[in-house]
Structures are given as C-alpha cells and as structure tokens.
Amino acid sequence: GLKKKITSALRRMAPSGHTTNIMGTGNHRAWRFMIQQRTAPGAEVEIREVFGMIAEDFKTRYPALYQDMYDTMADGQL
Fold first, then answer.
1. How far apart are alpha carbons 24 and 60 in whole angstroms?
2. C-alpha to C-alpha distance for 66 and 7, rounded to whole angstroms
3. What is the pLDDT of residues 14-50, one digit of tens each?
4. Residue 15 CA: distances (Å) to CA of 11, 12, 18, 49
C-alpha cells in the first residue's frame, strides 16, 4: 500500500555509501520461483531491478531452462 511506496521512495533518496555483497545458492526451480516472486508488480522497485538482471543473466547462461521467461514484468516494466 501507501506505506510500502513511501518507505521504498525514502530508501532510494537516503545516502548509501557502502557496498552490499550477497551470495545465494539454489536449484533452477527455486531460482525461477524467486525470480517470479521478486519481479511481481507488488515487489519493491530495487528488488525487481536486481531480479530482472538475474533473470536476464540466467536466460543467457541457461537458455534451455529459461527461454520461456518473458522479457518484461507483469506490469510491462523491465
């Protein structure tokens, strides 16, 4: 709702002077589920962007497994 939109906007405006590194593992079924959930219209913009990049990378690396994924998210944004 509105609170989530305001919180997300404030995070984008707040100064961020440090790097965050994250590593994750999972099978392709789990990754597809995470990509689907994290690129849904209700997900925060930053998360959508990150998982959109992951999806594009996986489509390049594993085309046989990710060829059916759409290039745009459910609401038309990439």
1. 19
2. 32
3. 666 556 677 889 999 999 999 999 999 888 888 898 8
4. 8, 8, 9, 19
Q: Which residue type occupies 43? A: A
CA distance 66 to 16: 33
Closest CA relative to residue 77, chosen from 3, 51, 60: 51
pTM above 0.85, yes or no: no
Q: Which of 11, 29, 38, 61 is catalytic?
A: 38
**CA distance linking residue 57 with residue 51, whole number of Å:** 10
Q: Can 38 be counted among the known catalytic residues?
A: yes
How far is it, in rounded angstroms, from Cα 1 to Cα 47? 17
